[in-house]
C-alpha cells in the first residue's frame, strides 16, 4: 500500500512531462530579442519550450534556412525581410499562412506576417568629423572623392540584409549601370566590406574603436546610442546621413517553416509577436518600429527621426533581381586588384 502513492506520483510526473514536451524551434537573426518574462508567459500558456536558434545576420539565416530545407531545423522563422522573403519563397522553404494570421498595420510583407520595420541608411560619427573639421558628404558621389577615401564600411549583400538593402537602394535611385559604376568608384576609394552588421558597427565603425566614421546601419541607431549610454547625453554621438539613394525601408516578418514539427504552436508564436505587449517591447529591444498601429514610442526616439523618403524596390523586383545584383556587386567590389 505504501508503494502505490509513490507509483502514482511517478505516473503523474511522467504525464506532466509529456504535456510539456512540445518544443518550438524559432530560427532568427542574431539581433532577435524578446523580453524574457513575456517569453516565459508564452511558454506557460501553451505548455511549451521555445528554443531560439540564432543564425548570424539575416542573410546568413536565410541561407541556412534554405540549406536545411530537406531536414528543417525550425518551425517558425523570424527576420526574413522584404529583401529576402522572395528568395525564401522561391526556394520553397515557407509554408502558407492561415487566413486568421493576416494582420493590418503600418506595413505588410508578402508570405509572412509583418512584425516590425525600420530604415537602413548611413550613420556617421559626429566627433570624428568635428575633430577633423571635415564637411559631411552631400551625395553618394561625394563618397567616391579623395576627401572621403577609406572612411566608409558596408556589409556584404551576399551575407547581410542591411548590405543587400543598401545595395538595392543605390540601384533603385540610380539604375543598375550607374549604381554599379558608383560601386566601382567606391571600391577604388577604399570602401571596406564586412560580413555583417555586427562586425561593421561594433568593430569597424570609429564610434566603437574602428577606423571607419561612416557605416551602413539603421536610422534608429543614434537613439540606441543614447538609450544604452550611462551618461544619457542630450544629443546622440552619431547621426544619420540620409543621402539620396541611401535609405531603404526594411520590413521584417515571421513565417511558418515548411515541414516544421509544430505548425500550430508556430502560428501561436507569430500571433504572440504581433501582440501589443511584444510590439511595445520591440522599439527599445530590437530598435525597429512596431508593425502594429497605435504603439507609443519611447521618448529616446526623438534622436532618430523617420526618413521622409526612401529608395526601396518592391518585393517582386528584389526577388527577381537580387541574385544578379549580388553576383555583379561581387565582381565589381570584391574583384582582385590584379
TrEMBL record:
InterPro entries attached to this UniProt entry: ThiB-like
Residues in the signal sequence: 1-21
GO MF term set: thiamine binding; thiamine pyrophosphate binding
Entry keyword set: Signal
Pfam families in the cross-refs: SBP_bac_6
GO cellular component: outer membrane-bounded periplasmic space
CDD domains (alphabetical): PBP2_TbpA
Superkingdom as given in the UniProt entry: Bacteria
Gene Ontology biological-process entries: thiamine transport
Protein name: ABC transporter substrate-binding protein
Amino acid at each position: 500500500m505504501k508503494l502505490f502513492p509513490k507509483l502514482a506520483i511517478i505516473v503523474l510526473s511522467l504525464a506532466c512531462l509529456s504535456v510539456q514536451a512540445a518544443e518550438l524551434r524559432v530560427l532568427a537573426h542574431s539581433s532577435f530579442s524578446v523580453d524574457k518574462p513575456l517569453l516565459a508567459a508564452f511558454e506557460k500558456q501553451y505548455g511549451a519550450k521555445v528554443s531560439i536558434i540564432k543564425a548570424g545576420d539575416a542573410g546568413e539565416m536565410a541561407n541556412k534556412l534554405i540549406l536545411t530545407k530537406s531536414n528543417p531545423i525550425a518551425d517558425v522563422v523570424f527576420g526574413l525581410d522584404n529583401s529576402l522573403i522572395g528568395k525564401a519563397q522561391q526556394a520553397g522553404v515557407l509554408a502558407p499562412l492561415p487566413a486568421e494570421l493576416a494582420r493590418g498595420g503600418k506595413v505588410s510583407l508578402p508570405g509572412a506576417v509583418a512584425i516590425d520595420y525600420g530604415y537602413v541608411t548611413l550613420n556617421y560619427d559626429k566627433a570624428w568629423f568635428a575633430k577633423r573639421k571635415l564637411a559631411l558628404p552631400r551625395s553618394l558621389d561625394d563618397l567616391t572623392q579623395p576627401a572621403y577615401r577609406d572612411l566608409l564600411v558596408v556589409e556584404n549583400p551576399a551575407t547581410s540584409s542591411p548590405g543587400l538593402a543598401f545595395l538595392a537602394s543605390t540601384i533603385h535611385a540610380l539604375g543598375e549601370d550607374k549604381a554599379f559604376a558608383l560601386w566601382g568608384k567606391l571600391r577604388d576609394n577604399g570602401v571596406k566590406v564586412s560580413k555583417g552588421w555586427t562586425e561593421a558597427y561594433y568593430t569597424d565603425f570609429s564610434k566603437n574603436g574602428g577606423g571607419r566614421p561612416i557605416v551602413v546601419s539603421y536610422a534608429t541607431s543614434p537613439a540606441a546610442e543614447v538609450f544604452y549610454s550611462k551618461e544619457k547625453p542630450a544629443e546622440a554621438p552619431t547621426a544619420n546621413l540620409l543621402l539620396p539613394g541611401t535609405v531603404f525601408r526594411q520590413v521584417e516578418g515571421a513565417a511558418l517553416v515548411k515541414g516544421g514539427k509544430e505548425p500550430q504552436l508556430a502560428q501561436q508564436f507569430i500571433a504572440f509577436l504581433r501582440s501589443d505587449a511584444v510590439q511595445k517591447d520591440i522599439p527599445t529591444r530590437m530598435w525597429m518600429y512596431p508593425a502594429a498601429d497605435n504603439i507609443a514610442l519611447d521618448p529616446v526616439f526623438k534622436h532618430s527621426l523617420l526618413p521622409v523618403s526612401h529608395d526601396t524596390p518592391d518585393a517582386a523586383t528584389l526577388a527577381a533581381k537580387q541574385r544578379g545584383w549580388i553576383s555583379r556587386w561581387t565582381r565589381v567590389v570584391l574583384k582582385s586588384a590584379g
